[in-house]
Amino acid sequence: VEIRTHSSLRPTTVFCMASSTAFLLLLVAALHVCCCRGQGGHAGTGVAAIYSLGDSITDTGNLVKEAPPGAFETIKHLPYGLTFGRPTGRCSDGLLMIDFLAQDMGLPFLNPYLAMNRSFDHGANFAVAGATAMDPADQFNGRFSMPFTANSLKLQLRWFKDFMKSTFNTDEEIRKRLQSSLVLVGEIGGNDYNFALFGNKNVSEVEKLIPAVVQTIIDATKEVLDMGASRVIVPGNFPIGCLPSYLTAMAEPETSAYDSAGCLKDLNLFAAKHNAQLQRAVAGLRASYPDAAIAYADYFNSFLSLLKGAPALGTFRRG
Ligand SMILES: *[C@@H]1O[C@H](CO)[C@@H](O)[C@H](O)[C@H]1NC(C)=O
Ligand SMILES: *[C@@H]1O[C@H](CO)[C@@H](O)[C@H](O)[C@H]1NC(C)=O
Question: Minimal CA–CA distance to 193: which of 227, 226, 240?
Answer without folding.
Answer: 240
